[in-house]
Write a structure and sequence with these properties.
The chain is of the alpha+beta class. Helices cover 37% and strands 18% of the residues. The site of glycine (GLY) has 7 residues, from loops.
Length: 440
């Protein structure tokens, strides 16, 4: 398939988010650093990935950068980033440098990152509040406290240090939970690439092929579509491997008569997609596989039907569990009434995870699920996954025909004003559609 070209990022999108954060803070200063580069071994680095909060507010993808946002009557935003460096740019490639970064990305001021320690005490002076995130990186915490102490030392010169330290992530989590038009557009495109990757994987699957070969098909389509990387390590799990929830070895040979569970999604321009499909290695579900599969598919449909504005976060999960439990009783996996099996939790032997999570810049995205002890209500612009499953490990009185069948079906769903939009709808998931695709 052909992919639409990626539009250049519009700096106004990020400026609007900074303005909203400043408004929510009311007064004070926020400091948001991007992620550090990490060494893999000796002088090799892991592929660089910016910090999601920093990117959300800047669109700036270079390492070694910090955003300083000053709230109040006239909000200002300041970027610290790497200076231009002819020598380093020959080795590592282009870098904006403060001047170009300021004009291209719309900051009010920009400075060389080497000046951060020297300049921060002045930025912090007389600010009533410091919004930052502490507790994740000891070196960063020490640095921030150093700046604070630098201001406190000047108290006899009449300069006040921030009295309140607040977690800027808490405000940002809430903002990130509701996706704007730019985010939804990016997530639709990420979903489209991942959908094509799953279709490619289904076509490539055959007995005797390796899980790693199918993983390679996914990665090929991700990059071909312009995605920068997978959003998380792909799970390509044949047969009983599907019953290991975080199986990532992907090194077994696929067997006729087994199912293949693939949980894989790309990251495009910072945004994750997250799809699971489970299909037969030889292109045709056995009777027992189909029984389990149809139960999970019905559970997913029931869950997706609950995704609409005003519904509680937990409503899709409750709906999925009810359908799954009915199915488990019908298959002889659980005994008793639906209510009794839900009450006892016996179904958790076969369904041990929850039915979804927020999705966005992070695959398990920012935002809380409960507020004041109550499940959060869904609102337009929220994006979540709906991913029920059924994992039947052999033993424990399991009927032989269902042993080692593991099924999960996962889609990415945006809450709209009237209901929902399944961003990954085009990835085949009915038995008929999957078998038809695998026949060609
Ligand atoms: N692939 C991660 C998840 O489904 O939560
Ligand atoms: Mn997921
Ligand atoms: Mn997943």
């Amino acid at each position: 398939m052909a992919y639409p070209p990626t539009a250049a990022p519009d700096p106004r999108v990020y400026a609007a988010r900074r303005a909203r954060l400043a408004q929510r803070m009311k007064h004070g200063i926020a400091i948001v650093p991007t992620a550090p580069e990490r060494t893999r071994n000796r002088d090799s680095h892991y592929p660089y990935r910016f910090d999601s909060y920093f990117f959300y507010l800047t669109g700036f993808v270079e390492p070694n950068a910090v955003l300083v946002l000053i709230a109040g009557a006239q909000p200002r935003s300041v970027l610290f980033c790497r200076d231009k460096d002819k020598e380093r740019e020959i080795w590592d490639g282009f870098r904006y440098g403060p001047d170009a970064a300021r004009s291209v990305f719309g900051f009010d001021e920009a400075y060389n990152i080497a000046e951060l320690d020297a300049r921060m005490p002045a930025f912090l002076a007389d600010q009533p509040q410091l919004g930052c995130h502490l507790g994740s990186d000891e070196a960063w915490d020490t640095r921030v406290l150093g700046w604070l102490n630098g201001v406190r030392m000047q108290v006899r010169a009449g300069i006040a240090a921030p009295e309140a330290i607040t977690d800027v992530h808490a405000l940002l989590d809430d903002m990130r939970l509701i996706k704007d038009a730019h985010e939804l557009d990016t997530m639709r495109r990420a979903a489209q690439i991942s959908t094509a990757a799953h279709q490619r994987a289904m076509r490539a699957t055959a007995p005797g092929r390796g899980e790693h070969e199918i993983e390679a098909e996914l990665l090929h389509e991700f990059r071909r579509g312009g995605a920068q990387s997978p959003a998380y390590t792909s799970i390509v799990a044949g047969g009983a491997n599907a019953c290991v929830l975080h199986y990532v070895q992907n090194d077994a040979v696929l067997k006729a008569g087994d199912l293949l569970l693939i949980d894989a999604g790309c990251e495009l321009d910072g945004y994750a997609s997250d799809i699971t499909r489970t299909f037969p290695v030889n292109g045709k579900y056995s009777a027992a596989q189909r029984e389990v599969y149809e139960i999970v598919l019905a559970a997913q449909a029931a869950a997706i039907a609950e995704v609409s504005p005003g519904a509680e976060w937990n409503a899709p999960h409750d709906a999925a569990v009810r359908v799954l439990v009915r199915g488990m009783i019908d298959l002889g996996l659980c005994k008793g009434s639906v209510d009794a099996v839900i009450e006892s939790g016996d179904y958790r032997r076969f369904y041990m995870h929850r039915t979804g999570h927020w999705l966005g810049l992070d695959v398990h995205d920012a935002g809380d699920y409960k507020r004041d002890g109550q499940w959060r209500k869904l609102e337009p612009g929220m994006v979540l996954t709906v991913e029920p499953g059924c994992y039947i490990q052999a033993g424990d009185g399991v009927p032989a025909q269902y042993a080692n069948i593991g099924v999960r079906i996962e889609d990415d769903v945006a809450v709209t004003a009237t209901g929902n939009e399944v961003l990954t709808q085009a990835a085949p998931k009915t038995v008929a559609d999957i078998e038809a695709l695998m026949r060609v």
